[in-house]
Amino acid sequence: MNDAILNLAADVRELSRLTVRYDEPDELLRRGLDWLARVAPYDLATVFLLEGEDVLQVRAAQGALANQVQDHHLQLKDFPTIRQALEERRARAFTEHDHRHGDGDPFDGVLDLEDGHSCMVAPMYTGERPMGVLALDREVCEPYPPGVVELVEVYAHLLAVALENAEQRRRLERLNARQREQLRLLAADCRDEGQDVLGGSKSVAVRRVAVKARQVAVTDTPVLILGETGTGKERLARAVHAWSRRSDGPFVALNCAAIPAGLVESELFGHKKGSFTGAGTARQGRFVVANGGTLLLDEIGELPLAVQAKLLRVLQEGTLTPVGADREVRVDVRILAATHVDLHRAVEAGAFREDLYYRLEVFPLRMPPLRERLDDLPALCRALLAEQTQRTGRSGLILSAAALRVLAEQRWPGNIRQLSNALERAVILAGPDVSVLGPELFQPWDDRSMATVEPASMTLEAVQRQHIERVLKQTGGRIYGEGGAAALLGMKPTTLQSRMKKLGVQRPD
Asked: What share of the chain is helix, strand, coil (3-state, %, to 5)?
């Protein structure tokens, strides 16, 4: 008796190892059915998997009779005993009476087996999900012993779990492969974007920035990217990431001005469940998401002083503590910071930490405004029009020489972002039959607005809505900070947000 128990324990242990050893589902089933012959002899072992709710299709078959059943399937409605075994999750050994007076054998009409031959089915399921059945058949006429039936029942369940895990691993591998390909394409886009913004420039100032950016890209040194709103600071940051040895890692961007002050710490460092009101689940911060890659902190001058201190710690020690947590998390992230404000003046005013400023200002890069690189206007227009193809549905558009002259005469306080908006609006106004954008499509915004809407006929709310939308577009949707929409409109950011909600104003993408 003791030997039998030891042998059974060894079989179950080997069975458990087998179900976690193979990642390829077909190989797992083949080897699993081969091993099963040690404890339950068969001439045919078949794994039927459910397709839909009522069809069992052969997925794998082993044994002397396997070649005859490879494409076999059956309807569960025709086999209530098998359906019952699947629903009750209990293995069932069939008798001669079952064969003669019951549902009939699953292989009736396919195999010529005598009534009373050894036959059993064991349900395969994971959690609440029925996957199918494992069927064993022998040509001899003797029933499977109860102990063997119970062991096969356990094995069928383990095999189902192993099969589900193997299929999940394959799905994850395919997902990871797609993500790696997306990262590769993103890196290529970043390199191309860097060429558009930097490498192909005719501007001496921009070329100098490109040389410096390539020099610092190969290091892990923090980079401070300076420049007016809309000059392409994020594009430059993506190019630095693409040229770095971290290019295969994630590139994560956070606009510090777009996050309410009370949530910035959680957004950066993450939080534990219940750490504050509304924290219903734990959440990883941007640093953890960017681990192994690059984190761009756009408009870093808007960070609260308390968060600046924690950011400095991450830069110095490479560790952070999520909100509400008592354990440190180590991260490996390269920091790029961008701002349009004068951080030196912010330090003098007490709005920005001096130690953090000098930690970030190791290698500053300044993106020149559009008015200082008008030689790049034709190339920038081509790149922006190509970039907008998916949104506008138009491709192959070019600008006339007169249109380029009109664009070159404008001030562009919103820089490349404002130019992009002007081009997109021109494409929409041009209509589907126009392939060359002329100067008439680039008249000043105010003139076009007044030509289409009579101010006297507009309600006060409509005028307010139009003005707020215009300012938001000018600032690229930025509400907070110097140069933000709230400052330009002379109101508090919270007041502006309330007014926007009341008027139904949406921030532009």
From this structure: 50, 15, 35
pLDDT given for residue 126 in this prediction: 85
pLDDT digits (tens, 9 = 90+) for 35-51: 888 888 898 888 999 88
Structure tokens at 253: 């961007």
- 261 burial (CB, 10 Å; 0-12 / 13-18 / 19+) is middle
Provide the whole-model pTM: 0.55
* Residue 456 pLDDT greater than 50, yes or no: no
**What pLDDT is recorded for position 451?**
38
Question: Is the distance from CB of 57 to CB of 48 less than 8 angstroms?
Answer: yes
Strand 334-339 and strand 223-226: the pairing is parallel
Geometric angle at alpha carbon 360, from 358 and 365, rounded to 5°: 115
DSSP annotation of 199:
I
Q: What is the token pair recorded at 219?
A: 């290091």
309-335 exposure pattern, b = at least 16 Cβ within 10 A, e = fewer: ebbbebbeeeebebbeeeeebebebbb
Cβ atoms of 437 and 400 closer than 8 Å: yes
Contact call for residues 442 and 430 (beta carbons, < 8 A): no
pLDDT tens column, 217-259 = 999 999 999 999 888 899 899 999 999 999 989 999 999 988 8
Over the chain, what is the mean pLDDT? 82
Two tokens, residue 38: 């040690």
Long-range contacts for 78-84 (Cβ within 8 Å, ≥24 apart)? 78/103, 79/103, 79/104, 79/106, 82/56, 82/106, 82/121, 82/133
Convert the pLDDT of each residue in 263-274 to its tens digit: 888 889 988 887
443 vs 164, which has greater pLDDT? Answer: 164
d(CA 190, CA 413): 25
Q: Is residue 338 a contact partner of residue 237, using CB atoms and an 8 Å limit?
A: yes
Q: Are 193 and 439 in contact (CB under 8 A)?
A: no
Per-residue pLDDT tens over the stretch 178-190: 666 555 555 555 4
3-state secondary structure of 212: helix
Q: How far is CA 224 from CA 136, 243, 268, 364, 385, in A?
A: 69, 16, 18, 5, 29
Angle between helices 146-194 and 25-36 (to 10 degrees): 160
